[in-house]
Specification:
Blueprint lengths: L27 E5 H24 L4 H7 L3 H4 L7 H17 L3 H17 L27 H18 L3 H18 L13 H12 L2 H13 L32 H18 L2 H17 L31 H18 L3 H14 L17 E2 L28 H11 L6 E3 L3 E4 L4 E8 L2 E9 L6 E8 L5 E7 L6 E5 L2 E5 L2 E7 L6 E6 L4 E3 L11 E6 L2 E6 L11 E3 L6 E3 L10 E8 L22 E9 L11 E2 L2 E2 L6
Parallel strand pairs: 4-8
Antiparallel strand pairs: 1-5, 2-20, 3-4, 5-6, 6-7, 7-12, 8-11, 9-10, 9-12, 13-14, 14-15, 14-21, 15-19, 15-20, 16-18, 17-18, 18-19
Helix pairs in contact: 1-4, 1-14, 2-5, 4-5, 4-6, 4-14, 6-7, 6-8, 8-9, 8-10, 9-10, 10-11, 10-12, 12-13
């Protein structure tokens, strides 16, 4: 059974060939270490939690109510709740391919039968619109999310096509896709959805089926965007849903971060499949500028709570960071497409940073509660969510089991289930490793089988050993990404040891079974300085160790106010023992002070004359990996720490 990656290389005769090709998903098996543990958590906890939550809050029952003619009285949840069922199904399909399970197959069959029964004769499928006496189909394209929901169903079906799981789902999805093409094609409605997603789903369905009308419709949706078809909004106008400027004329991502990133992913897919090098270059430039000016240290995107939107260039407040988990997932989708299209290892760096610091930070250690928002500074302990009901509060600094808008848990589930597909690629010359995890890799290079075994303690240990387990007598290239954060790295091949620079390093040779390459990455903790144009953290420092961003959490500093701590940049950060409650991490210790609170009756002038301020009491601060904060009870936290050598 062939199980291919979430994004295939271009298939049409006019396509721009991808520089790199993703192998089948089952070509990579993570057998131990960090990401194997995360995938185990996903299988045993996150996916079952999503499934049971969807039943508990009644969102699955919406389809039963539709079948039974009771949608008007029984339907529960937001207008886009159907999409969470589809994303959970996609996660189940990828997980079934990764590690087959009778329980997953049975549940996928139940879901598919329910969807097929609920689907209208013309292919339309939605539980919020279109039933007798209910809201009219497509009457509210700006906010209705009908095509957004359809897109997620199509992506679940693409996973089914590529894995062979849930084959009956494919028919449901194709009937819906054909309906969309009829309804919104050149002779149909001249409209777009307020939430992009359908674009990339249609292209991926084209790749999986060869049906060209799906690609044509995706291209039409991309070209329609930006011509003010949708209404004005309170969130800085039409840029909220990227309908202010045509895609080809935009210079940076704007508006709702998830919408912007999903649109960019779809536009890249269209560009690759149609040979549109101009569109591809435009999307790349937009994403690059967004990375340079509108992205947090953690890889998070979206700095405005008002509308879940991007701010202006360098508008990156820590305590008001939105950095939605779904935006992180979408950013990885864009970076992955650009990595395939260009071969630029910088996009591997983006994927790594975002995975370790903004995606895996969302689920709790037990995989049953989730962050929607991933702030970089929490001044007061979070508010516990109300038990037994979906939470309305996304920004309380506390993970919740479920939300009234629960797009993030299901997005994490589908990404983690398919994560093996993001680790390795091939081209005509060999194999490229982009992310490091202990496991087995079996790929084909120019029709020749190549096998690799990877052993690593990454991200806490920087040693990566790659051993050849299958090869022939012809030479091929092994390329390893050297992360941009790495100050010192070396490569060991046999008796040869050489220093290597960030970017990538390639070993070209005729390989023998048992040959090993060892990449040594220096993961020593290091200070990180912000761009001086980011006003909110000017005069501050952060700490990174390897690919991990670190944070101070109040649990490790009882009695101290984290808003009064500062760090001494003259003392380098050093490794420290794991703190209580986090036995599986490497902590970092930094030297600094705890200042006394200024005496003042007005916050804007606190300590203006120095009254009540001293030099601060010397202290050592223990920092933990950011992704593990808020797992030991109520706490405060900060990533960026003021410097002792900068006046308060």
């Amino acid at each position: 059974m062939s199980v291919v990656a979430p994004v295939l290389p271009g298939a049409s005769p006019q396509a721009v060939p991808n520089r790199l090709n993703p192998p089948p998903l089952t070509s990579v098996q993570m057998t131990g270490g960090f990401w194997a543990d995360v995938q185990r958590l996903n299988r045993e906890s996150i996916i079952p939690h999503c499934d049971s939550s969807l039943e508990r809050v009644g969102w699955v029952d919406n389809f039963r109510a539709l079948v039974e003619g009771e949608a008007g009285t029984r339907r529960r949840g937001r207008e886009f709740s159907d999409s969470e069922i589809y994303k959970t199904m996609e996660a189940m399909v990828w997980e079934e391919a990764r590690s087959p399970s009778e329980d997953l197959r049975r549940r996928l069959g139940e879901y598919t039968e329910l969807l097929a029964t609920a689907q209208a004769e013309d292919g339309y499928l939605n539980t919020y619109y279109g039933y007798d006496g209910g809201p009219v189909r497509y009457e509210d394209l700006a906010w209705g999310h009908e095509l957004y929901c359809a897109g997620h169903l199509l992506q679940a079906a693409v996973a089914a096509i590529r894995t062979g799981a849930a084959p009956d789902l494919v028919g449901v999805a194709r009937r819906l896709a054909d309906h969309v093409c009829e309804e919104f094609g050149p002779q149909g409605r001249d409209g777009i959805d307020g939430h992009p997603e359908i674009e990339t789903a249609l292209v991926e369905l084209y790749r999986a089926t060869g049906e060209h009308r799906y690609l044509d419709q995706a291209r039409l949706f991309v070209e329609r965007r930006g011509h003010r078809r949708l209404g004005d909004t309170m969130f800085k106008g039409r840029d909220y849903y990227q309908d202010d400027v045509p895609v080809r004329e935009a210079t940076v991502l704007v508006g709702h971060a998830v919408r912007a990133l999903y649109l960019t992913a779809g536009a890249i897919d269209v560009a690759v499949e149609t040979g549109d090098t101009e569109l591809l270059a435009t999307c790349r430039a937009q994403f690059d500028r967004t990375l340079e000016r509108r992205t947090y240290l953690t890889g998070g995107m979206g700095s405005n709570h008002h509308g879940e939107t991007y701010g202006e260039d360098f508008e990156l407040p820590s305590e008001r960071a939105y950095a939605e988990t779904c935006a992180a997932v979408a950013s990885i989708q864009v970076a992955w497409r650009l990595l395939l299209a260009t071969g630029d290892p910088r996009y591997g760096d983006v994927i790594e940073r975002t995975l370790y610091n903004n995606v895996v930070s969302s689920p709790s250690a037990d995989g049953r509660t989730f962050f929607y928002v991933n702030t970089l500074h929490r001044r007061s302990p979070g508010i516990a969510p109300e038990a037994g009901v979906p939470s309305l509060r996304r920004t309380d600094g506390t993970r919740a089991p479920w939300y009234t808008t629960s797009c993030c848990p299901t997005n994490v589930a589908r990404l983690v289930a398919s994560l093996g597909a993001y680790l390795v690629t091939t081209d005509d010359t060999g194999v490229q490793l982009h992310q490091y995890a202990t496991g087995e890799i079996d790929v084909v290079v120019q029709g020749r089988p190549v096998g690799l075994a990877v052993t690593t303690g990454y991200p806490y240990d920087g040693a990566v050993v790659v051993r050849v387990t299958q090869t022939d007598d012809d030479p091929w290239d092994l390329t390893l990404r050297v992360p941009g954060w790495c100050r010192r790295a070396s490569l060991v091949v046999g008796d040869e040891v050489r220093d290597v620079e960030s970017g990538e390093v390639t070993v070209s040779r005729t390989w023998a079974l048992g040959d090993e390459v060892r990449l040594e990455l220096d993961v020593t903790p290091r200070w990180v300085r912000p761009d001086p144009r980011v006003d909110h953290v000017r005069g501050c420092l952060a700490v990174e160790r390897g690919p991990l961003v670190y944070a101070a959490e109040s649990v490790d500093h009882p009695g101290a106010d984290l808003d009064l701590v500062s760090v001494d940049p003259s003392e380098p950060p050093v490794d420290a023992p794991a703190p209580a409650g986090l036995p599986d991490v490497v902590a970092v210790r930094v030297g600094g002070t705890v200042r006394s609170a200024p005496v003042s009756g007005w916050a804007s002038t606190a300590g203006g004359d120095g009254a009540g301020e001293g030099p601060g009491a010397p202290t050592d601060l223990t920092l933990i990996p950011y992704y593990r904060w808020a797992n030991r009870g109520s706490s405060t936290m900060r990533v960026w720490l003021p410097r002792t050598d900068v006046p308060a």
